[in-house]
């Protein structure tokens, strides 16, 4: 089932997600709905807070990035075949060089900005069957994982922008939170009367 994606301004997007156990209600259905919702919105990642669940869960499928001609065949192959569920993830370490990349977010449509992040991460997590993993990723894989990981920490990519950039985007962000935006997928906009 395709779910609504929460828009910028919803307080759930600012909550730190809670860890979950194997017996979390309808977890398989939630994950299936998240895949459907993400693909419907042409995303490469989706975190549970974006569908209104403040839990430590996100999904990633970097397949769409594999078509980038500027990448090496090895990088294209790695991106094409990367599809993962991350439950209760913990970034153990971020290392390497800072690099900027143009990021966007399904909760913040029509805004894309360069965000600087370290290029390598080590992450431990549980998969959809609650089997443990500890892996190292770099480049675009690390980038997408870091972006989704921020969501379960209550952080949005716009938080990482300079104060000048934030001021320049303020009007656009306000319009998104008020629902003054056209998107091709289902969104849920915050009730601003309740938020105040």
Describe this structure in words.
Helix content is 28%, strand content 31%. The protein is an alpha+beta fold. It has one domain: Alpha-Beta Complex (Peptide Deformylase), CATH 3.90.45. The strands form two sheets. The chain has a five-stranded antiparallel β-sheet with strand order 2-3-4-5-6, with helices on both faces. A two-stranded parallel ribbon has the order 1-7. The longest helix has 15 residues, at 163-177. The two termini are 31 Å apart. The model has no long low-confidence stretch (mean pLDDT 95).
Largest sheet: 5 strands, antiparallel
Annotation, overall tally of beta strands: 7
Enumerate the spans where pLDDT stays under 50 for 5 or more consecutive residues.
none
Whole-number average pLDDT? 95
Count of the domains: 1
CATH topology: Peptide Deformylase
What attributes characterize this protein structure?
196 residues; alpha+beta; Peptide Deformylase; 5-stranded antiparallel β-sheet; 5 helices; 31% strand; globular
């Amino acid at each position: 089932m395709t779910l609504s994606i929460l828009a910028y301004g919803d307080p759930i997007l600012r909550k730190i997600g809670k860890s979950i156990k194997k017996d979390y209600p309808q977890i398989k259905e939630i994950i299936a709905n998240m895949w459907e919702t993400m693909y419907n919105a042409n995303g490469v990642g989706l975190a549970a807070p974006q569908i209104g669940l403040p839990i430590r869960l996100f999904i990633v499928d970097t397949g769409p990035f594999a078509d980038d001609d500027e990448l090496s065949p090895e990088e294209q192959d790695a991106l094409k075949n990367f599809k993962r569920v991350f439950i209760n993830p913990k970034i153990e370490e971020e290392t390497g060089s800072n690099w900027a990349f143009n990021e966007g977010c399904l909760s913040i449509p029509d805004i894309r900005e360069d965000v600087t992040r370290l290029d390598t991460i080590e992450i431990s997590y549980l998969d959809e069957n609650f089997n443990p993993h500890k892996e190292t990723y770099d480049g675009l894989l690390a980038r997408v994982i870091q972006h989704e990981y921020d969501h379960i920490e209550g952080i949005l990519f716009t938080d990482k922008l300079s104060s000048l950039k934030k001021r320049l985007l303020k009007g656009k962000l306000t319009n998104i939170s008020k629902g003054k935006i056209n998107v091709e997928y289902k969104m849920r906009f915050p009730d601003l009367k309740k938020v105040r």
